[in-house]
Design goal:
CATH architecture: Alpha-Beta Barrel
Helix content: 25-40%
Bound molecules: iron/sulfur cluster
Structural class: alpha/beta
CATH class: Alpha Beta
CATH superfamily: Aldolase class I
Number of domains: 1
CATH topology: TIM Barrel
Order of helices and strands: HEEHEHEHHEHHEHEHHHEEEHEH
Strand order of the largest sheet: 7-6-5-4-3-2-8-9-10
Number of strands: 11
């Protein structure tokens, strides 16, 4: 995909990020590709986890339900821009009535990934998902399993949710879908210990002990101000290289979500609580915009290499 550079002033709605409070030039990312397009299916969820980075809960409509007619034109545009994968997040995607129809269409064109809590809404749709196994492109799932122990997972998600998620994960795996797990980063535990604990959980559930995992640091609730160091333009050149800058999720992917009744393109999956990260209503327009590093979650990307993506970006 060829990105035509246009001035930052012309494209980003708000310019105050361009300088830090100390009046240093602010850090930013210049997108170079659209390898992955994320769809936010809406912030409604069957669970109400107190730590949810999306603030999702039953009936929530901060981001509204994605409908097939919202998704289809953006898929077409993404295909024309060379997208390699469609990915879906929520909320809980499986409470969205259109999700199977949307996936059915997506799988005609590109491999697709769905993030799910793998509890009742997923279980109710297993039969429908069965029909998606023979589509031209592969469907995969990432299940949230916050910690490798039931008590800690259930403390946030509710009694019995660990067992339900593990059962959902096992059923998806048994159906032949590729599965992975999203867990919280346990900063005070050595990585090999965390790996061994998850391996034990997976083995006991009859799953491969080396299932891929994506670890997330604390992202905090949407809209909260979290004091983090501001990333300057110099930080992005002194501590990052051209190659590492190109591996930030906002450099090679975008997210679309329905906000205020309209589909909007956001810089990535992590910044939909800040209107400064709405980059347009078309992907073509959004790909021209530089992405500010002012959000506290950008610091997690900078410090920990946090990402929701599992794909290898175009170099
Ligand atoms: S949170 Fe990360 S991926 Fe998203 S805009 Fe900030 S730096 Fe980019």
């Amino acid at each position: 995909m060829k990105v035509i550079p246009i001035s930052v002033e012309k494209l980003n709605r708000s310019q105050h990020w361009r300088h830090t409070p100390d009046d240093e030039p602010g850090g930013f990312i210049q997108p170079h590709a659209l390898d992955e397009l994320w769809f936010h299916t809406g912030t409604a969820c069957n669970l109400a986890c107190p730590f949810c980075l999306e603030g999702s809960k039953p009936g929530d409509d901060r981001l509204q339900m994605l409908r097939f007619d919202d998704a289809q034109p953006l898929m077409e545009e993404a295909l024309s821009l060379g997208v390699k994968q469609f990915s879906f997040t929520g909320g809980e995607p499986f409470i969205n009535k259109d999700i199977v129809r949307i996936l059915d269409y997506a799988l005609l064109h590109r491999p697709s990934l769905v993030l799910t809590n793998a509890t009742k809404p997923l279980m109710k749709r297993l039969r429908q998902l069965d029909s998606l196994r023979d589509r031209p492109q592969a469907l995969s799932f990432r299940v949230s399993l916050d910690y490798p122990d039931a008590a800690r997972h259930d403390a946030g998600r509710g009694e019995g949710m660990f067992a339900q998620a593990l059962e959902g994960l096992r059923r998806l795996h048994d159906m032949g879908f590729h599965v992975s797990v999203a867990n919280q980063l346990l900063a005070d535990v050595m990585p090999d210990v965390v790996e061994a604990r998850f391996a034990e959980v997976f083995r006991a559930a009859g799953l491969p002990q080396d299932l891929p995992r994506v670890e997330f640091p604390e992202f905090h609730l949407p809209g909260v101000q979290v004091p983090t160091p501001r990333i300057t333009k110099r930080c992005m050149t002194d501590f990052q290289t051209e190659e590492t800058r190109r591996s930030f999720m906002c450099a090679f992917s975008k997210m679309v979500a329905k906000s205020g009744g309209r589909m909007q393109v956001y810089a990535c999956t992590l910044v939909d609580d800040d209107p400064d990260y709405i980059l347009g209503e078309t992907l073509t327009e959004a790909l021209q915009a530089f992405v500010s590093m002012k959000h506290h979650r950008c610091y997690s990307c900078f410090k920990y290499g946090a990402t929701c993506s599992e794909i290898k970006p175009t170099k």
